[in-house]
Amino acid sequence: MPKFVASATLAEPLGWPNSTLLAGDIGAAVRRLKAEPGRDLHVIGSPGLVQTLLGLDLVDELRLMIDPVLVGGGKRLFREDNAHRPLRLVDSKVTSTGAIIATYAADGALKSA
Fold this sequence. Notes:
InterPro entries: DHFR-like_dom_sf, RibDG_C, Riboflavin_Biosynth_HTPR. Residues 25-99 form the Bacterial bifunctional deaminase-reductase C-terminal domain. Strand 5 (87-94) and strand 6 (100-106) form a beta hairpin. The chain folds into two domains: 1-41, no CATH class; 43-113, Dihydrofolate Reductase, subunit A (3-Layer(aba) Sandwich), CATH 3.40.430. Helix content is 17%, strand content 29%. The protein has helices at residues 26-35, 47-55; strands at 3-6, 19-22, 61-66, 83-84, 87-94, 100-106, 111-112. It has two helices and seven strands, in the order ββααβββββ. The strands form three sheets. The chain has a three-stranded antiparallel β-sheet, with no helix packed on it. It has a two-stranded parallel sheet with strand order 1-2. It is α+β, with helices and mostly antiparallel strands. It is globular, with a radius of gyration of 16 Å.
């Protein structure tokens, strides 16, 4: 399965097998990938990329893991831009450690408040 890497600092060749760097306009690159048949696209560990994709209305589904730990800081997943995007809960699971995995589907276009 090919892996696509979005990065503002990496350059080709990447150090991971079967990996391709998404260069240039990230919105255009993701639109091209979404237009291809095949599997879902996943973002792991990049709140900045998620924020960008949300702002471009390119997110169809969010899978959030909520851990039962308060850390008092960290990177924000959502920007403070007054954007309003309706989401619909389509699945939720509680893990053996008490974490909640919630899956939300996009339910309408991104709107500014």
